[in-house]
Write the structure tokens for this entry.
Amino acid sequence: MAISKLEALYLWGQNKNAGEAAMYPKPVHDLSGWKIRSLGCCHKSVVVAADNSVVSWGSHPTYGELGYGDGKAKSSTVPQEVKPLDGIYVSAVGCGWGHVLYIARNSSDEDKAKIEALPEYQP
């Protein structure tokens, strides 16, 4: 996957276990019109920071790393907004085998309050 100079998302290669592979970059039509600023990909998941939202999808995420929240679906075959991050400006994302890292703006008291309101993982 790659982000173009016009902030559009493109993918190529085999994106399903069975099926044809794209031999050249093709736009991700579900995200057309969104301005993509950061992309994170891992084994089975994709997360993007776009406009004022975070969007994710993946058919077999391992630990709920798509970020839809407790009691919500753990996977999605189509891009969905990550609602628990509404109102939080995420400047960059990164993915690993079973996690996603979000770099969020915290330059104002309002930003900091929204971040601190997020649930904290307690193992």
Summary: The longest strand covers residues 22-27. The helical segments are 109-116.
